[in-house]
Design a protein that fits this description.
Elements lengths: L1 H27 L23 E3 L10 E2 L12 E6 L21 H7 L8 E6 L6 H6 L1 H23 L4 E6 L1 H14 L8 E7 L23 E3 L3 E3 L7 H4 L3 E3 L2 E3 L19 E2 L24 E2 L9 E4 L2 E4 L11 H6 L11 H20 L1
Parallel strand pairs: 2-12, 3-4, 3-5, 5-6, 6-7, 8-14
Antiparallel strand pairs: 1-4, 9-10, 11-13, 13-14
């Protein structure tokens, strides 16, 4: 028993050292020139469907679903999803990434995140010149450039594809930082706000002060015109806390990094802001499929059957705490081992709950309009 405990301790230490070395190597990369001296990549043209990561009619990876789930026919969908993808490029050799750069996580993001909305909606997900991980920390200008693409894509979608349809805004990580700004600059206080079914702004800091701008935080499963967010961490560990305490965010026309209000946390197992939800409320989890990349042939696939009752969840001081066994296959990785963070599984861990809820809120929006 003593030897076994000693082996586990040594293995854990080795993992920490290896993970630290990995992130040090990533952090040691940097663009050859300052942002101001670097020519930006070619801007996407959103009139071209190929400049979108997901676009209706292409029948791509976003149309995938787990066994037992059936995507809605796009021609039957009454609503759309505008999905802003997270960082999918893990190097730091540029400030902003060309939209045709080879990435490891473009396809997994469609399979594990965007596809959760194909039970209710058509899915639009723009390519954009995403900021690299280093740029997210060191260059507001690079982040502004990335947001400019997202904003142009959204405006193009509204002008050419929306036709007055209700829509869901969904995002993750870097995409959620852009969504926070997009809500303020292009949606709230405009006629578009009345078309907003809900905003799923996941895996980033979302200030609870959105209520002061007329966007309430959701507190019921069928509430519409509201916002949800969460950042997932292992119970008893606060590694994901830097996402809600050590961050820049756009607020009322400027970047801010101090005086942060409380972060929004809505429990995706109950869709309430308070209280604990048991594992029995978890309808099914999906792991991140990181073995496929953006060079794979684009076509729907049948995902593995979702795992029910993986974990319960509770909002705890701005983070969503879950309890997943340490060696649960598919739910490990360096972020979890070193920091206790399930950032890459913010969607997948609650996949079926998100899928069901997006449909529920869409139906609630339809009923509200009908009445």
């Amino acid at each position: 028993m003593v030897k076994a405990k000693r082996w586990v301790a040594l293995a854990t230490t080795a993992l920490v050292v290896l993970a630290g070395g990995y992130f040090w190597l990533r952090g040691s990369e940097q663009p050859p020139l300052a942002f101001e001296k670097t020519a930006p990549p070619t801007a996407p043209d959103y009139a071209r469907p190929q400049d979108w990561l997901a676009f209706p009619g292409r029948n791509g990876f976003e149309r995938s679903a787990p066994m037992g789930d059936i995507p809605i026919r796009e021609e039957d969908a009454v609503a759309d999803v505008f999905f802003i993808h997270p960082t999918t490029y893990l190097k730091n050799d540029v400030w902003n990434v060309p939209i045709d750069a080879h990435t490891r996580y473009g396809v997994p993001v469609l399979l594990n995140q965007a596809s959760a909305f194909n039970g209710c909606c058509r899915i639009y997900a723009p390519h954009y010149r995403q900021a690299t991980l280093q740029a997210l920390n060191d260059s507001r200008a690079a982040v502004d450039l990335a947001f400019g693409d997202v904003e142009r894509a959204f405006r193009w979608y509204m002008a050419h594809e929306n036709h007055g349809r209700p829509f869901i805004l969904a995002s993750h990580s870097q995409g959620s930082a852009h969504a926070v700004r997009l809500l303020q600059q292009d949606i709230l206080g405009t006629p578009m706000q009345h078309q907003l079914i809900a905003a799923y702004v996941i895996g980033a800091f979302v200030p609870s002060d959105f209520t002061t701008l007329g966007l309430p935080v959701c507190d019921r499963a069928n509430e519409t015109g509201c916002i949800v967010s969460w950042n997932t961490t292992q119970v008893g560990r606060r590694g994901a806390e830097r996402l809600i305490h050590e961050t820049y965010y756009w607020w009322r026309g400027a970047w801010r990094s101090s005086g942060l209000p409380a972060a929004v946390c809505v429990n995706p197992l109950s869709w309430r802001r308070e209280g604990t939800a048991p594992a029995s409320a978890n309808l099914g989890s999906e792991t991140l499929l990181d073995t496929v990349d953006d060079q794979s042939p684009a076509m729907p696939v049948v995902l593995q059957a979702a795992t029910p009752a993986l974990t319960g969840a509770v909002c705890d001081q701005g983070l969503l705490a879950v309890d997943v066994p340490l060696f649960k296959r598919g739910y490990g990785g360096m972020l979890r081992t070193v920091y206790g963070s399930f950032h890459v599984l913010d969607y997948g861990m609650f996949y079926e709950n998100i899928r069901q809820n997006a449909l529920q809120r869409t139906q609630a929006w339809q009923q509200m309009v009908a009445n």
